[in-house]
Amino acid sequence: MATALTLQHPSRSFAPLGRQAARPAPRPADRPAVQLESLGALVAYPCGKTIVEAGDPAETVFKVMSGVVRTVRLLPDGRRHVASFLLPGDVFGYAADEEYPCAVEAVGSVSLLRIPRARFEALLESDAAARRRFLSMVCGELSAVQDQLLLLGRKTAVERIATFLLATADRRARDGEPARDVHLPMTRADIADYLGLTVETVSRVLSQLRHQGLIELPQATHVVFRDRDALEDICAGDV
Amino acid sequence: MATALTLQHPSRSFAPLGRQAARPAPRPADRPAVQLESLGALVAYPCGKTIVEAGDPAETVFKVMSGVVRTVRLLPDGRRHVASFLLPGDVFGYAADEEYPCAVEAVGSVSLLRIPRARFEALLESDAAARRRFLSMVCGELSAVQDQLLLLGRKTAVERIATFLLATADRRARDGEPARDVHLPMTRADIADYLGLTVETVSRVLSQLRHQGLIELPQATHVVFRDRDALEDICAGDV
DNA sequence: CGGATACTTGAATGTAATCAATCACAGTGG
DNA sequence: CCACTGTGATTGATTACATTCAAGTATCCG
What we know:
Two copies of one chain form a homodimer.
Chain A: E1 4-6, E2 41-45, E3 50-52, E4 60-66, E5 69-74, E6 80-86, E7 91-95, E8 103-106, E9 110-116, H1 117-126, H2 128-154, H3 157-172, E10 181-183, H4 188-195, H5 199-211, E11 215-219, E12 222-225, H6 228-236
Chain B binds a DNA duplex through residues 156-157, 187-189, 197-204, 206-207, 219-220.
């Protein structure tokens, strides 16, 4: 089974491989500054552009520098699923096998760091600290994906949306401060495909939350939390 | 975010760390025989027993020697989701963080190899080949979990069941030969929680497939494929 | 055997999907 | 400047699939 990973830093673990640029911040003793940036070159992709195709040889590891990308899987009849949204600092494209298992596309215009796979692997071989951080990222990703399984398998539409809004908001705010709003650069279709819903349902649920006074929608891409506690209750299923 | 992994070997990659016992088989040149068995002790658990609790300190890595275990996540109101079933040869319990993120329970009676986390990590530090195999397993697991996201997000009940039957059957048969039947040691409730369905739906769909002549059900735990091609078409959504 | 648990089947309900307009907005060209 | 066009978002009406509620049947284990 071809396997690529689409990494996002585990939100509560230490700064993962590649987060240094965005956040110079607190660095425990055992962590030499690894300049992932020095291993690759910057590339820009316009909105909607496919960055890697499913089945392409996995020769490059990427790090998101700005913008957002989505990883996409398709069924033969066209049904689509978005496995994850990757934000600046996230790393993707490392595959144990020789092929990428899913496509990756630019949500808006993005800039990425392209790192040749061999160079990335050489870093892992030579730098024990980098290795530990990378393994930590991968494990964090696994845990996050399992939360998503629970969401898709057992949560209602409202719970999925509430979970998505809060989780997306808090991925940016690493300061401990709970976010008061969230920017959604992706379309309703992307959100729907990420949450296993339809565009109409996403739209309806957002409207419902707005009518209930839990959120405001000054623009389609901007959600302001008016009652964060209530949203958190919904996530947990306490309705 | 606490993160544990529940590993199962990527089905199409080389024998992963820990598969040696079950399969001495073809071993590429760069692979010294790592005796994971020599690092830990055997323990037995009776049917239904909880092996690790979510939130427990992640001090032990396990390898399934016989039987099947399930990894379970719960919502506060009791809704349950089974993230994975682990078969003999599979490794679980390695967490980047210090806590297990989900519970692991014995499906039948099982015997496990308990390996102290420190000893497992020491192996990874010292043995580059073991490290590569482990990373490969983790990446394979990530890819498999993403397939499961697609299943939960976009597939119908029949497609989920067909996918589950074939995937489970083929996890055992590593000979290339497509399996002609599959043994299901877990209950319908376990299957339902794994596929995001209810027991009733699982039962109904199996009956439907039986009436259509695609499978036989000599016992509830034993499924014989009568038309594997048709099942594969259903998986892909070609109905 | 008897009791419990697991599985199957049936009927009714409900949540989200589908089908179908309408609305909002950005970009373009008259 | 403003109508025009196209895309994305919202809202409404209806449908469908899986769930829920409710028996009934098989199987396992004492």
